[in-house]
Amino acid sequence: MDMDKNGGSVPIPYRISPSKPVYIIHCPISFSSHHIQQSDPYFCFASYMENILFLASLSFLFSIISSPLLCNALSNCNGPCRDLNDCSGQLICIKSKCTDDPDMGTHICQGGQSRSVPTYRCSPPVTSSTKARLTNNDFSEGGDGGGPSECDGRYHGSSERIVALSTGWYNGGSRCGKNIRITARNGRSVIAKVVDECDSMHGCDKEHAYQPPCGNDIVDGSDAVWTALELDKNEGVVNVTWSMA
């Protein structure tokens, strides 16, 4: 290949037949040499644009394949989201977090007077000082806890420092047998073991002692937990904070 003084390609005549010359033009940016008629003066530029478009197509295809919107699984409770389509099940996106839809999931409690109560799959994120409502539960057989504890299939006495956590915090049993620290507003704190789920999805049946589903921010503590915190269980519900111990 010959080069002109500006470094460009110079057509090299190549005679295929005596009557009609054909030129081979070598373009430095081309993937291959092409045989073209001398009447096509824009071959190098066209070849250059063809290659650029090909590379751009590959780049676009790669970006689509590697897109996080296509590769990432749908988010569960408190997972990141940009819109409803990023959340699993019936969860919705509120303030960039997947959570329960407040307008869905009502549960009808029968017995006495029928009423509707919300149900929850999610609980607030767990932090070093997670806000919660402390309630009182009898984990013994025949108590208001209904059936045996979910974690170990056993009943427990009122002297044990144990708790049940809302469905979201219970997290499918991942916190079973683990200790949490509960702190009351009076400054008292206690270590208690997780033994059960305070079911936020189901209720109003024999298994749940005909009680409605729990809220999504409940720490349901035994008598021993209330005593250690020097709280009066007759108050029913007390604001506390908790964290993993």
Outline the secondary-structure elements:
Elements: E1 2-3, E2 9-10, E3 12-17, E4 20-25, E5 34-36, H1 43-65, H2 68-71, E6 92-94, E7 97-99, E8 107-109, E9 115-117, E10 130-136, E11 162-166, H3 167-170, E12 179-184, E13 189-198, E14 218-221, H4 223-228, E15 238-244
Parallel strand pairs: 10-14, 11-13
Antiparallel strand pairs: 1-2, 3-4, 4-5, 6-7, 8-9, 10-15, 11-14, 12-13, 12-15
How would you sum up this structure, described in words?
By secondary structure, the protein is of the alpha+beta class. Helix content is 15%, strand content 29%. A 6-stranded mixed β-barrel has the order 10-14-11-13-12-15. The protein has a 3-stranded antiparallel sheet with strand order 3-4-5, with no helix packed on it. The longest helix has 23 residues, at 43-65. The radius of gyration is 35 Å and the shape is elongated.
Keyword list:
245 residues, 3-stranded antiparallel beta sheet, alpha+beta
